[in-house]
Amino acid sequence: GKDTDTDAVMNEFELASINEKWERHIQKENKGNDRLSKWAQDIGRGAHAYNTDVEEEEEPGNLMEELQLDRMEQRSLKLQNSILLDRIRLQRLERRILCLESDELGIFESAVSNTLVSLNEFDPPEANPITVVQRQAKKFVNTFGESSSVLLRKLDRVQSKSGRNNREYASVTDFVARETFAGVRIVGNLLSNPSQLSQLVDPETPSLVPHVPAILARLDRLESHVTPILSRVLNNKQHLRSIEPYLDEILERFDDIEPHLPWILDHIDTLAPYTGLLLKHIDELLLYAEVDEYEAGDDNYAFAEQLLPYLEVYVSQLDLVGPHLPLLRPHLPLLLKHNRIKILSPHVGVLFAKGYTDLSASANMDVLLFYFGWALRVPLVPRFFFALAPPATVSFLANRMPKRLVRGRCCDVTCFVDGDYGEGWNELSK
Predict the structure, then answer these.
(1) What is the rounded CA–CA span in Å between residue 351 and residue 337?
(2) Contact yes or no for 214/247 (Cβ under 8 A)
(3) How far is CA 169 from CA 166, 215, 255, 389, in A?
(4) Strand intervals (E) in 147-200
């Protein structure tokens, strides 16, 4: 059979054929009308049988014409609908063209729109430029004063030989001489290596100027770290903006920080945004920096490496976590086994979010791990426990589980959990 799809596009030959059929249809209708008149005239003569035979002979042809006529009518309706849709699209397109080409309303709307956008995004400068200069000058003076205090305190400790690192200097003069020679060597290395000198090109480099006194007090310690500092902190890395407000405090504690500086610089991308909070709890954190072979094996930073992926979880609640750190320190070897830190870390935030403030669980972590450490390696058990168990359950288990099996004769030994270790309990050399 022929394709009767009314959506098909007709070519000129099909259109001519349909027109020709339409003309024949009209002619046959006219002939039919003539026959009807003749039949009316001859009805009394018995011509009815003749006309019936004619209609029976022409019935198949009329059926085909009716089918063609139906197809044409359907196609006509499709074309009308299509033309109507095209007219609507054309009207919309003309409206858009008129809006874009308008020389009156379009320009006015554009001007108003641009003005409002500019007003919304405009950041007005200080009303008085003198106020800006005064504020910057005050900040510079305050920073320079704090930096000078770092240098003066260092000179005082050198003179009194207070602290292990300050005993190596014969006198204040010896200290000044060493710092001077170290500064000369640093400048000489920079001038001989233009690639390193170019790394000083950083938007925040000028902010180091008021910190010069504190930097001068640590030149001998900084000398071996200049290259990684330039490449990882400066060099347009955008880390100096996070570190600079705390630079004086860093240099004040540099004798404690410097042994771990290579590891810190290796992970500076992760640590730099949290400089302030990490410094606030530096005493607690430094407890975990010194580990022996029994505690961590060959990797002295095994604990830190496990914590690093969850640094944001701990740092965001470091004020809550901080008091627990000294109490957890004796249990470090147990925490490092079987990646327990990695398993527990995702759930710590959930526990503290429930208002957990009791320190007994940290003080008795060895007891909890002895009885329930195996459960940490069972899939989904830690997640369900921390999600469903109230904080009081953790404290109850930590305080009530038998300790003799864990600690033997030392089962009666307890840790102070009131957070008061006495003045200077963890005072480190500066």
Answers:
(1) 22
(2) yes
(3) 6, 18, 14, 57
(4) none
Total residues found in the chain within this entry: 430
Judged by DSSP in three states, 274 sits in: helix
Task: Give the separation between CA 305 and CA 328, rounded to whole angstroms.
Answer: 17
**Residue 343 clears pLDDT 90, i.e. is over it:** no
Whole-angstrom distance, CA of residue 42 vs CA of residue 50: 10
Sequence-distant (≥ 6) Cβ neighbours of residue 211 within 8 angstroms: 143, 147, 244, 247, 248, 251
Q: Which residue has the higher pLDDT, 271 or 200?
A: 271
Taking residues 379-385, report their average pLDDT.
86
Instruction: Work out the angle at residue 28's Cα, subtended by the Cα atoms of residues 27 and 30, and round it to the nearest 5 degrees.
Output: 65
Give SS3 for 281. Answer: coil
Q: Which residues contact 190 (CB under 8 A, 6 or more apart)?
A: 196, 197, 200, 226
Other CB atoms within 10 Å distance of the CB of residue 303: 21
**Is 386 within 8 Å of 361 (Cβ atoms)?**
no
Residues 280 and 318: beta-carbon distance below 8 Å: yes
Helices (H) and strands (E) in the chain, counts: 28, 0
Torsion angle (degrees, nearest 10) of CA 26, 30, 32, 38: 180
> Token pair of 185, please?
């060597």
Q: Which two three-digit tokens encode residue 229?
A: 């500092």
Q: How many CA atoms lie within 13 A of 404 on its CB side?
A: 0
Q: Is the pLDDT of residue 426 over 60?
A: no
What whole-number distance in Å separates Cα of residue 267 and Cα of residue 33?
101
CA distance 7 to 75: 7
Asked which of 137-141, 307-311, 399-403 is least confident by mean pLDDT, the reply is 307-311
Q: Which pLDDT belongs to residue 19?
A: 65
pLDDT tens figures, 282-293: 887 887 776 665
Whether the predicted pLDDT of 321 surpasses 60: yes
Structure tokens at 192: 């001989």
